């Protein structure tokens, strides 16, 4: 950011209009083979590649709270059971933080599952229900009959290869003791369903309605400010924002909310945006100083051609394609976008903070950035930022000493760029006995001004704002969703 727009009020109106004009969610559902929950888990390559499973040996994010400001989260999804500890709707269209009926209803659930999904599946939930109860009073014949029925149920749930889907050691223990271990069908980390990077962190769901005009309440600009403030007031350690505008500038009304997060030591993580949505450059809120902006890469760690914007605000890159995630109703699907890269980084930040609770939000950000695997140009690359996320090193690795001057803050930016108008001083009449003679009446002489050449920067901002509003620039990174969504099919 080089400064506030020349006309703050006009720029704010144009930005607000563009943010809510036309959701660019180029979603496409494509055919895919039927998949069990463990097959969805197998597609989460970033768990191994980014050192997540190694970091779990130290922490799984217990005690941390991630606020997901999005379209709402389905807390009844098996992989999110027990994860959502609170919520709010700031649009007037919903009830609490549950999904709001709009074009991207599933988006918030997808995001939350990558941040803090528990890794359980519908199958695991069904088995858990089967083994609830007291079996000690059954005689041997009754127990054998029950066990035969139980194995039949397992085959019905998982198919003919059900033995490969359950923890056989836990199953044997259950048969011998008649006391079902809690993780009957999954190991300590969960071996089926989509699991989040911080599977023991808690989720706060704050739902928005991205519709213009909003028939139920305030517009997007107002909703986001309220959502950030609510998240801070309700115990969020990290705020995930997988949404954004096509503008580098942000409404002045956001200053107070994001300053509130900064002053209360809350880390804000935001998606950089998706090229497929027309966002070639990073847009707000990812451009706000202090916010950790996340770019997207594919499995080979190449910057995504469709799912990652670029700019000097980029802090770090993480997986954005191909992704999998949970959707309302107990299903899973495939999707792409920096909307998914952001919660992977939010989950990583939760692991860092859980393992190092003495750190400040800025120091957590420092660990995440300074341990990234270097990619792109030397220094901070406009596509990769500091590099690709390395969760294991961020949690436990050696890092250079923290230097606060290396990390700009919103407070400093506001001090420099949002300076208030100098109050006019009262003019007093010249005393008659002062000996001062007033000048001649007439128009005052214009003050001399230094000539300056016109630059691209003089007109680029206003033109971009106007063009974006007229062309209905995309709103959310919201997966872009260029989702390549694949709904789960029954086997």
Automatic annotation (TrEMBL):
Family listed: Belongs to the peptidase S8 family.
Keyword tags: Hydrolase, Membrane, Protease, Serine protease, Signal, Transmembrane, Transmembrane helix
Keyword Metal-binding found: no
Bias (Basic and acidic residues) ranges: 176-185
Domain of life: Bacteria
Transmembrane stretches, start-end: 459-481
The protein's name in its UniProt record: Subtilisin family serine protease
Single GO biological process annotation from the record: proteolysis
């Amino acid at each position: 950011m080089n400064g506030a727009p020349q006309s703050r009020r006009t720029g704010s109106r144009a930005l607000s209009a563009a943010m809510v004009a036309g959701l660019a969610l180029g979603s496409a559902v494509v055919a895919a083979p039927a998949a069990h929950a463990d097959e969805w888990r197998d597609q989460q390559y970033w768990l191994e590649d980014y050192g997540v499973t190694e970091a779990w040996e130290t922490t799984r994010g217990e005690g941390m709270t991630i606020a997901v400001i999005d379209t709402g989260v389905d807390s009844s999804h098996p992989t999110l059971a027990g994860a959502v500890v609170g919520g709010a709707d700031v649009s007037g269209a919903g009830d609490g933080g549950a999904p709001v009926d709009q074009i991207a209803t599933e988006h918030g659930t997808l995001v939350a599952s990558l941040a803090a999904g528990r890794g359980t599946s519908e199958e695991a939930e069904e088995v858990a229900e089967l083994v609830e109860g007291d079996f000690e009073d059954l005689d041997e014949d009754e127990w054998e009959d029950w066990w035969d029925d139980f194995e039949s149920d397992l085959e019905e749930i998982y198919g003919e290869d059900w033995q490969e889907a359950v923890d056989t050691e836990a199953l044997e223990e259950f048969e011998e003791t008649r006391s079902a271990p809690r993780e009957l069908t999954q190991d300590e980390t969960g071996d089926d369903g989509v699991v989040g990077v911080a599977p023991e962190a808690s989720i706060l769901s704050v739902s928005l309605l991205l519709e213009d005009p909003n028939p139920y309440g305030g517009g997007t600009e107002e909703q986001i400010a309220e959502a950030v403030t609510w998240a801070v007031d309700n115990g969020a350690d990290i705020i995930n924002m997988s949404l954004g505008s096509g503008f580098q500038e942000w409404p002045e009304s956001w200053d107070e909310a994001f300053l509130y997060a900064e002053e209360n030591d809350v880390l804000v993580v935001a998606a950089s945006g998706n090229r497929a949505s027309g966002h070639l450059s990073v847009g707000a809120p990812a451009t706000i100083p202090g916010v950790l902006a996340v770019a997207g890469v594919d499995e080979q760690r190449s910057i995504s051609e469709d799912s990652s914007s670029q700019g000097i605000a980029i802090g770090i890159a993480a997986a954005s394609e191909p992704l999998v995630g949970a959707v309302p109703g107990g299903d899973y699907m495939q999707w792409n976008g920096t909307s998914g890269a952001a919660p992977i980084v939010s989950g990583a930040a939760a692991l860092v903070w859980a393992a190092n609770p003495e750190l400040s939000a800025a120091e957590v950000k420092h660990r995440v950035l300074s341990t990234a695997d270097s990619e792109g140009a030397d220094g901070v690359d406009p596509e990769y930022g500091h590099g690709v996320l390395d969760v294991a090193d961020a949690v436990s690795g050696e890092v250079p000493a923290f230097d606060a001057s290396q990390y700009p803050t919103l407070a400093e930016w506001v001090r420099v760029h949002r300076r208030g108008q100098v109050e006019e001083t009262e003019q007093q009449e010249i005393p008659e006995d002062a000996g001062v003679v007033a000048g001649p009446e007439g128009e005052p002489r214009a003050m001399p001004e230094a000539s300056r050449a016109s630059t691209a920067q003089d007109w680029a901002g206003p033109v971009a704002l106007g063009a974006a509003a007229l062309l209905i620039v995309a709103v959310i990174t919201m997966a872009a969703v260029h989702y390549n969504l694949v709904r789960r099919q029954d086997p």
